[in-house]
Protein backbone atom coordinates (compact mmCIF):
# COMPACT_ATOMS: atom_id res chain seq x y z
CA UNK A 1 0.00 0.00 0.00
CA UNK A 2 2.66 2.52 1.02
CA UNK A 3 4.88 1.68 -1.95
CA UNK A 4 1.95 2.33 -4.27
CA UNK A 5 0.99 5.69 -2.77
CA UNK A 6 4.62 6.88 -2.67
CA UNK A 7 5.25 6.11 -6.33
CA UNK A 8 2.04 7.95 -7.25
CA UNK A 9 2.65 10.94 -4.97
CA UNK A 10 6.30 11.66 -5.83
CA UNK A 11 8.41 11.74 -9.00
CA UNK A 12 11.10 9.51 -7.53
CA UNK A 13 11.38 7.59 -4.26
CA UNK A 14 14.83 6.79 -2.90
CA UNK A 15 14.00 4.97 0.32
CA UNK A 16 11.41 4.28 2.97
CA UNK A 17 12.39 3.85 6.63
CA UNK A 18 10.63 2.85 9.84
CA UNK A 19 12.46 3.94 13.00
CA UNK A 20 12.53 2.33 16.44
CA UNK A 21 9.46 4.32 17.47
CA UNK A 22 7.58 3.13 14.34
CA UNK A 23 7.56 6.56 12.72
CA UNK A 24 7.66 6.25 8.94
CA UNK A 25 9.93 8.52 6.91
CA UNK A 26 10.72 8.71 3.20
CA UNK A 27 13.49 10.14 1.06
CA UNK A 28 11.89 11.44 -2.13
CA UNK A 29 12.50 13.67 -5.13
CA UNK A 30 9.74 15.89 -6.50
CA UNK A 31 9.34 18.85 -8.81
CA UNK A 32 7.56 20.64 -5.96
CA UNK A 33 10.12 21.96 -3.48
CA UNK A 34 7.78 21.37 -0.54
CA UNK A 35 7.65 17.67 -1.44
CA UNK A 36 11.39 17.22 -1.83
CA UNK A 37 13.79 15.74 0.72
CA UNK A 38 13.58 13.55 3.82
CA UNK A 39 10.53 13.81 6.09
CA UNK A 40 7.91 11.89 8.03
CA UNK A 41 4.94 10.67 6.01
CA UNK A 42 1.46 9.34 6.50
CA UNK A 43 1.94 5.77 5.18
CA UNK A 44 -1.71 5.48 4.14
CA UNK A 45 -1.66 8.55 1.90
CA UNK A 46 2.01 9.35 1.34
CA UNK A 47 1.35 12.89 2.63
CA UNK A 48 4.19 14.77 4.28
CA UNK A 49 3.55 15.11 8.01
CA UNK A 50 6.65 16.83 9.39
CA UNK A 51 10.35 17.42 8.96
CA UNK A 52 12.71 15.02 10.72
CA UNK A 53 14.04 17.10 13.64
CA UNK A 54 17.75 16.94 14.54
CA UNK A 55 18.64 15.46 17.90
CA UNK A 56 18.78 18.23 20.55
CA UNK A 57 22.39 19.18 21.42
CA UNK A 58 21.67 18.71 25.14
CA UNK A 59 20.73 15.05 24.65
CA UNK A 60 23.72 14.54 22.35
CA UNK A 61 25.89 15.89 25.17
CA UNK A 62 24.19 13.60 27.72
CA UNK A 63 24.58 10.57 25.45
CA UNK A 64 28.31 11.17 25.00
CA UNK A 65 28.77 11.77 28.72
CA UNK A 66 26.86 8.60 29.59
CA UNK A 67 28.83 6.44 27.14
CA UNK A 68 32.37 7.62 27.80
CA UNK A 69 32.48 10.60 30.21
CA UNK A 70 34.05 12.47 27.23
CA UNK A 71 37.16 10.29 27.68
CA UNK A 72 36.63 8.28 24.48
CA UNK A 73 38.04 4.73 24.68
CA UNK A 74 39.27 5.00 28.28
CA UNK A 75 35.90 6.38 29.32
CA UNK A 76 34.03 3.56 27.59
CA UNK A 77 36.18 0.99 29.40
CA UNK A 78 35.51 2.71 32.72
CA UNK A 79 31.73 2.79 32.07
CA UNK A 80 31.76 -0.90 31.08
CA UNK A 81 33.60 -1.89 34.27
CA UNK A 82 31.26 0.30 36.33
CA UNK A 83 28.23 -1.43 34.80
CA UNK A 84 29.69 -4.81 35.73
CA UNK A 85 30.38 -3.70 39.32
CA UNK A 86 26.84 -2.34 39.61
CA UNK A 87 25.56 -5.70 38.38
CA UNK A 88 27.57 -7.49 41.10
CA UNK A 89 26.29 -5.08 43.75
CA UNK A 90 22.69 -5.67 42.61
CA UNK A 91 23.15 -9.44 42.51
CA UNK A 92 24.77 -9.66 45.95
CA UNK A 93 22.13 -7.28 47.31
CA UNK A 94 19.46 -9.65 46.02
CA UNK A 95 21.15 -12.62 47.73
CA UNK A 96 21.40 -10.70 51.03
CA UNK A 97 17.74 -9.70 50.75
CA UNK A 98 16.65 -13.32 50.20
CA UNK A 99 18.73 -14.36 53.20
CA UNK A 100 17.25 -11.58 55.32
CA UNK A 101 13.70 -12.58 54.37
CA UNK A 102 14.38 -16.26 55.16
CA UNK A 103 14.05 -17.53 51.60
CA UNK A 104 12.84 -16.44 48.21
CA UNK A 105 9.24 -17.35 49.12
CA UNK A 106 9.22 -14.54 51.67
CA UNK A 107 10.95 -12.03 49.41
CA UNK A 108 7.92 -9.72 49.39
CA UNK A 109 6.88 -10.35 52.98
CA UNK A 110 6.22 -7.40 55.27
CA UNK A 111 9.33 -5.60 56.52
CA UNK A 112 9.53 -4.11 59.98
CA UNK A 113 10.33 -0.41 59.74
CA UNK A 114 13.07 0.34 62.27
CA UNK A 115 15.33 2.61 60.26
CA UNK A 116 14.26 4.92 57.40
CA UNK A 117 17.26 4.31 55.14
CA UNK A 118 17.38 0.57 55.63
CA UNK A 119 13.62 0.17 55.23
CA UNK A 120 13.37 2.01 51.91
CA UNK A 121 16.68 0.56 50.73
CA UNK A 122 15.03 -2.87 50.94
CA UNK A 123 11.53 -1.88 49.75
CA UNK A 124 12.71 0.02 46.68
CA UNK A 125 15.37 -2.58 46.03
CA UNK A 126 12.73 -5.29 45.73
CA UNK A 127 10.69 -3.24 43.28
CA UNK A 128 13.49 -2.06 41.01
CA UNK A 129 15.87 -5.01 41.23
CA UNK A 130 14.89 -6.55 37.88
CA UNK A 131 15.15 -3.30 35.84
CA UNK A 132 18.52 -2.51 37.45
CA UNK A 133 19.85 -5.98 36.65
CA UNK A 134 18.69 -5.51 33.04
CA UNK A 135 20.29 -2.04 32.84
CA UNK A 136 23.63 -3.34 34.12
CA UNK A 137 23.70 -6.56 32.08
CA UNK A 138 22.79 -4.82 28.83
CA UNK A 139 25.32 -2.07 29.59
CA UNK A 140 28.08 -4.66 29.99
CA UNK A 141 26.95 -6.40 26.79
CA UNK A 142 27.01 -3.16 24.77
CA UNK A 143 30.47 -2.33 26.12
CA UNK A 144 31.78 -5.76 25.10
CA UNK A 145 30.14 -5.30 21.71
CA UNK A 146 31.76 -1.89 21.29
CA UNK A 147 35.22 -3.39 21.78
CA UNK A 148 34.49 -6.39 19.50
CA UNK A 149 34.84 -8.85 22.37
CA UNK A 150 31.77 -10.86 21.33
CA UNK A 151 31.53 -13.33 18.44
CA UNK A 152 30.17 -11.59 15.35
CA UNK A 153 28.53 -14.62 13.77
CA UNK A 154 28.25 -15.28 10.06
CA UNK A 155 25.63 -13.98 7.65
CA UNK A 156 23.90 -16.72 5.65
CA UNK A 157 23.42 -15.75 2.00
CA UNK A 158 21.02 -17.65 -0.27
CA UNK A 159 20.60 -16.99 -4.02
CA UNK A 160 17.15 -17.74 -5.43
CA UNK A 161 17.41 -16.40 -8.97
CA UNK A 162 20.65 -16.61 -10.94
CA UNK A 163 19.22 -15.24 -14.22
CA UNK A 164 17.39 -11.91 -14.04
CA UNK A 165 14.13 -11.81 -15.98
CA UNK A 166 11.77 -8.99 -16.85
CA UNK A 167 8.56 -10.99 -17.21
CA UNK A 168 5.95 -11.34 -16.05
CA UNK A 169 6.27 -7.69 -15.12
CA UNK A 170 4.25 -6.39 -12.17
CA UNK A 171 3.63 -3.12 -10.42
CA UNK A 172 5.67 -2.88 -7.16
CA UNK A 173 2.47 -2.52 -5.15
CA UNK A 174 1.43 -5.96 -6.44
CA UNK A 175 4.63 -7.76 -5.41
CA UNK A 176 3.80 -10.75 -3.21
CA UNK A 177 6.58 -9.97 -0.72
CA UNK A 178 5.31 -6.39 -0.31
CA UNK A 179 1.74 -7.57 0.23
CA UNK A 180 2.83 -10.06 2.89
CA UNK A 181 5.07 -7.62 4.78
CA UNK A 182 3.75 -4.97 7.16
CA UNK A 183 5.55 -1.74 8.04
CA UNK A 184 6.27 -2.84 11.60
CA UNK A 185 8.30 -5.75 10.20
CA UNK A 186 10.73 -3.60 8.20
CA UNK A 187 13.59 -1.27 8.97
CA UNK A 188 14.22 0.14 5.52
CA UNK A 189 13.25 -0.27 1.87
CA UNK A 190 15.68 1.08 -0.73
CA UNK A 191 14.21 1.74 -4.17
CA UNK A 192 16.15 1.03 -7.42
CA UNK A 193 18.20 3.96 -8.79
CA UNK A 194 17.25 3.16 -12.37
CA UNK A 195 14.89 0.98 -14.41
CA UNK A 196 17.69 -1.49 -15.18
CA UNK A 197 16.73 -5.03 -14.13
CA UNK A 198 20.09 -5.34 -12.34
CA UNK A 199 18.98 -2.63 -9.90
CA UNK A 200 16.96 -4.14 -7.06
CA UNK A 201 14.58 -3.21 -4.31
CA UNK A 202 16.57 -3.83 -1.10
CA UNK A 203 14.22 -4.73 1.74
CA UNK A 204 15.85 -4.64 5.17
CA UNK A 205 13.84 -6.60 7.74
CA UNK A 206 14.71 -7.08 11.41
CA UNK A 207 16.39 -10.42 10.84
CA UNK A 208 17.36 -10.46 7.16
CA UNK A 209 17.94 -8.50 3.97
CA UNK A 210 16.16 -9.26 0.69
CA UNK A 211 17.04 -8.20 -2.86
CA UNK A 212 13.95 -8.08 -5.04
CA UNK A 213 13.68 -8.00 -8.83
CA UNK A 214 12.14 -4.60 -9.61
CA UNK A 215 10.32 -5.97 -12.67
CA UNK A 216 8.84 -9.25 -11.43
CA UNK A 217 8.90 -8.94 -7.65
CA UNK A 218 10.81 -12.22 -7.32
CA UNK A 219 13.27 -12.47 -4.42
CA UNK A 220 16.73 -12.66 -5.97
CA UNK A 221 18.74 -13.24 -2.78
CA UNK A 222 18.35 -13.42 0.98
CA UNK A 223 20.93 -12.58 3.64
CA UNK A 224 20.04 -13.80 7.14
CA UNK A 225 21.64 -11.85 9.97
CA UNK A 226 23.37 -13.82 12.76
CA UNK A 227 21.67 -14.26 16.14
CA UNK A 228 24.19 -11.91 17.76
CA UNK A 229 22.82 -9.10 15.56
CA UNK A 230 19.30 -9.74 16.88
CA UNK A 231 20.66 -9.96 20.44
CA UNK A 232 22.54 -6.66 20.07
CA UNK A 233 19.43 -4.80 18.89
CA UNK A 234 17.36 -6.10 21.80
CA UNK A 235 20.11 -5.25 24.30
CA UNK A 236 20.16 -1.70 22.95
CA UNK A 237 16.37 -1.40 23.22
CA UNK A 238 16.32 -2.82 26.76
CA UNK A 239 19.18 -0.56 27.85
CA UNK A 240 17.79 2.67 26.39
CA UNK A 241 14.02 2.08 26.36
CA UNK A 242 13.92 2.86 22.63
CA UNK A 243 10.55 2.05 21.09
CA UNK A 244 8.61 1.73 24.36
CA UNK A 245 7.35 4.64 26.45
CA UNK A 246 6.35 2.36 29.34
CA UNK A 247 9.76 0.68 29.56
CA UNK A 248 11.49 4.08 29.25
CA UNK A 249 9.55 5.38 32.27
CA UNK A 250 10.40 2.24 34.23
CA UNK A 251 14.10 2.66 33.41
CA UNK A 252 13.97 6.30 34.50
CA UNK A 253 12.45 5.30 37.86
CA UNK A 254 15.09 2.59 38.29
CA UNK A 255 17.86 5.11 37.52
CA UNK A 256 16.47 7.49 40.18
CA UNK A 257 16.34 4.58 42.62
CA UNK A 258 20.02 3.86 41.95
CA UNK A 259 20.81 7.39 43.18
CA UNK A 260 18.74 6.75 46.31
CA UNK A 261 20.48 3.39 46.88
CA UNK A 262 23.84 5.15 46.73
CA UNK A 263 22.75 7.66 49.36
CA UNK A 264 20.86 5.23 51.64
CA UNK A 265 23.65 2.63 51.36
CA UNK A 266 26.21 5.27 52.34
CA UNK A 267 24.08 6.31 55.34
CA UNK A 268 23.64 2.68 56.47
CA UNK A 269 27.40 2.14 56.21
CA UNK A 270 28.11 5.39 58.07
CA UNK A 271 25.80 4.40 60.94
CA UNK A 272 27.45 1.01 61.23
CA UNK A 273 30.93 2.51 61.20
CA UNK A 274 29.86 5.10 63.78
CA UNK A 275 28.49 2.39 66.08
CA UNK A 276 31.50 0.09 65.60
CA UNK A 277 32.60 -1.63 68.79
CA UNK A 278 35.75 -0.24 70.45
CA UNK A 279 37.21 -2.16 73.38
CA UNK A 280 39.83 -0.86 75.82
CA UNK A 281 40.64 -4.35 77.05
CA UNK A 282 40.99 -7.77 75.46
CA UNK A 283 38.52 -10.52 76.30
CA UNK A 284 41.04 -12.22 78.60
CA UNK A 285 41.51 -9.07 80.70
CA UNK A 286 37.81 -8.47 81.42
CA UNK A 287 35.37 -9.62 84.07
CA UNK A 288 32.25 -8.85 82.02
CA UNK A 289 31.55 -9.91 78.42
CA UNK A 290 28.68 -8.34 76.47
CA UNK A 291 27.56 -10.14 73.29
CA UNK A 292 25.63 -8.15 70.69
CA UNK A 293 23.40 -9.17 67.77
CA UNK A 294 22.58 -6.18 65.58
CA UNK A 295 21.30 -5.71 62.05
CA UNK A 296 21.60 -1.99 61.46
CA UNK A 297 23.92 -0.93 64.29
CA UNK A 298 21.25 0.36 66.69
CA UNK A 299 21.78 -2.44 69.25
CA UNK A 300 25.52 -1.82 69.11
CA UNK A 301 24.85 1.77 70.15
CA UNK A 302 23.02 0.46 73.24
CA UNK A 303 25.90 -1.90 74.02
CA UNK A 304 28.34 1.00 73.80
CA UNK A 305 26.29 2.97 76.36
CA UNK A 306 26.20 -0.05 78.68
CA UNK A 307 29.94 -0.53 78.24
CA UNK A 308 30.65 3.10 79.17
CA UNK A 309 28.53 2.86 82.33
CA UNK A 310 30.27 -0.35 83.42
CA UNK A 311 33.68 1.25 82.82
CA UNK A 312 32.65 4.19 85.02
CA UNK A 313 31.74 1.67 87.75
CA UNK A 314 35.28 0.27 87.61
CA UNK A 315 34.59 -2.88 85.57
CA UNK A 316 36.78 -4.11 82.77
CA UNK A 317 34.30 -5.13 80.12
CA UNK A 318 34.50 -6.48 76.58
CA UNK A 319 31.86 -6.23 73.82
CA UNK A 320 31.78 -8.99 71.21
CA UNK A 321 29.63 -9.90 68.21
CA UNK A 322 27.17 -12.70 68.92
CA UNK A 323 27.98 -14.45 65.64
CA UNK A 324 31.63 -14.62 66.76
CA UNK A 325 30.85 -16.16 70.15
CA UNK A 326 33.60 -18.22 71.75
CA UNK A 327 34.60 -19.59 75.14
CA UNK A 328 35.74 -16.68 77.31
Question: How would you sum up this structure in a few lines?
Answer:
By secondary structure, the protein is α+β, with helices and mostly antiparallel strands. The protein has 8 helices and 11 strands.
Structural notes for this entry:
The chain is elongated and about 105 Å long. A hairpin with a 7-residue loop joins strand 2 (24-29) and strand 3. The chain has a nine-stranded antiparallel β-sheet, with no helix packed on it. It has a two-stranded parallel sheet with strand order 10-11. Helices cover 44% and strands 18% of the residues. It has helices at residues 2-9, 57-68, 72-100, 116-146, 176-180, 227-240, 245-274, 298-312; strands at 12-18, 24-29, 37-41, 48-51, 156-159, 186-190, 200-205, 208-213, 219-224, 288-292, 317-321. Helix 4 (116-146) runs antiparallel to helix 6 (227-240) and helix 4 packs across helix 7. The N and C termini lie far apart (87 Å). It has 328 residues and is an alpha+beta fold.
Q: What is the H-and-E element order?
A: HEEEEHHHEHEEEEHHEHE
Average pLDDT level: 89
Q: What's the story with the biggest beta sheet?
A: 9 strands, antiparallel
Helical content band: 40-55%
Low-confidence spans: pLDDT under 50, at least 5 residues?
Answer: none
Q: Note the gap between the termini.
A: 87 Å
Number of helical stretches of at least 4 residues = 8
Radius of gyration: 32 Å
State the secondary-structure class.
alpha+beta
The spatial strand order of the largest sheet comes to: 4-3-2-1-6-7-8-9-5
Strand-residue proportion:
15-25%
Note the overall shape: elongated
Task: Say how many strands there are.
Answer: 11
Amino acid sequence: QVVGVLTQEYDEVLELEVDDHYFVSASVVSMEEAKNGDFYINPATGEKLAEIPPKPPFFEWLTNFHRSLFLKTIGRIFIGVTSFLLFLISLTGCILLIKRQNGIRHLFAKIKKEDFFQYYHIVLGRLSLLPILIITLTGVYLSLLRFSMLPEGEKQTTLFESELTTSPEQSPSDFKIFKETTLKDIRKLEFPFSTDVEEFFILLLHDRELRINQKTGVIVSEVKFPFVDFLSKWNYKLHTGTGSIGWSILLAIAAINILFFMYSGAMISYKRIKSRIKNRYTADETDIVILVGSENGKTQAFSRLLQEQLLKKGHKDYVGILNQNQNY
